[in-house]
Write a structure and sequence with these properties.
mainly alpha, about 0% strand
Amino acid sequence: MGLIPNYYPAYSVPRDFLTKAELDLLVHILKEREDVITFTDAEHGTFNSNRKYYPDYVMKMITHMPWQIKPLRLPLARTEEIMTMLKEQMQARKYESSQSSY
């Protein structure tokens, strides 16, 4: 997607916080590195592709019977909206499917 056309950080930087030279440098850096700035969930990357930097965390547990909690019910009127949101976030790899008891 890239930086928003005609975007200038001056809109979000408090007045007198940066000098004109510093603000120009900020704009230059943002334009030079806009390919690594993400604006949507679909654009972000992850370190988990080869598990080199962040290996899976193994949780040690004692043998026990899982407790039973009633599932959280979705309001029927918002089911489609919530399911669409969950699918988008799963595509962005924020969540993954699980058949776990917890």
